[in-house]
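BACKBONE STRUCTURE TOKENS:
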Amino acid sequence: MCPRILYEVVHQLPVIIQFEKLPMLRKDLIVLLRKGSMDLVEIARHLEVPQKDAEDDLRHLIKSLKHADDRLVITPAYCRKCDFEFNKDKLHKPGKCPKCHGTWIQGPLFDIEQKT
């Protein structure tokens, strides 16, 4: 009797099928950023990838665009409380402002424009 009960319980559980996401193409990222400025969170949300993957792709895109007709424009992160501007090298949003220790930080914005 016990094996039959286990059999019924196992078959009542929903079956979850996970589909693997296709890898994000950097061309998709270029098309997305040509439409307008976005921060890392918006990029990751729009492309449905983790922020870490979006950041890695942005780093690779910076290297790739050196040999293309486009360039990545980075508006650095800044503190909304005291207007402290962070270094352009940081692609993710900093946690705290080193000047006022505030957490009201605007993350860096990314945009693609044509080289002149």
